[in-house]
């Protein structure tokens, strides 16, 4: 088992998060996704459906990653495509979604304290 990379499960997961945070439009896109998904996963009693949240945000992250890759590249074959596919399989999308969940919980908690 590997030690991880910069506090993430592996380098591919770290790179994915790095690129999401690298550009403001992408950051804002994911902030919206996280906020909307959180709102959809919250129960009337205030508890969140964590599994549903992580599942949906992880799918969004994976979809964004796939969009970043030229579809022609993924439909071809060869060493580079095989290496790229292997790296994509290494990204821990659930780990990243959980980071977003923790961040959203902290942001909402801070906002509640701020309004009191």
Number of strands: 0
Give, in order, the helices and strands: HHHHHH
Mean pLDDT: 87
Oligomeric state:
single chain
Uncertain segments: none
The major pleated sheet works out as: none
Indicate the proportion of strand residues: under 5%
Overall spatial form: elongated
Structural class: mainly alpha
Rg, nearest Å: 16 Å
The separation of the N and C termini measures 46 Å
If helices are DSSP runs of H or I spanning 4 or more residues, what is the number of helices?
Answer: 6
- Structural domain count: 1
Helix content: over 70%
Topology:
Elements: H1 11-22, H2 24-41, H3 50-68, H4 71-75, H5 79-90, H6 93-115
Helix pairs in contact: 1-2, 2-3, 3-6
Q: What does this protein look like?
A:
77% of the residues lie in helices and 0% in strands. The protein has helices spanning 11-22, 24-41, 50-68, 71-75, 79-90, 93-115. Helix 1 (11-22) packs across helix 2 (24-41) and helix 2 packs antiparallel against helix 3. The radius of gyration is 16 Å and the shape is elongated. The termini are far apart.
């Amino acid at each position: 088992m590997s030690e991880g990379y910069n506090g993430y499960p592996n380098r591919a997961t770290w790179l994915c998060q790095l690129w999401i945070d690298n550009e403001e439009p992408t950051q804002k896109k994911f902030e919206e996704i996280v906020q909307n998904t959180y709102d959809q996963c919250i129960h009337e009693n205030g508890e969140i459906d964590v599994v549903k949240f992580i599942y949906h945000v992880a799918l969004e992250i994976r979809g964004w990653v796939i969009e970043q890759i030229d579809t022609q590249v993924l439909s071809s074959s060869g060493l580079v495509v095989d290496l790229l596919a292997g790296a994509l399989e290494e990204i821990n999308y659930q780990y990243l979604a959980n980071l977003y969940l923790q961040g959203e919980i902290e942001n909402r908690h801070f906002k509640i304290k701020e309004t009191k």
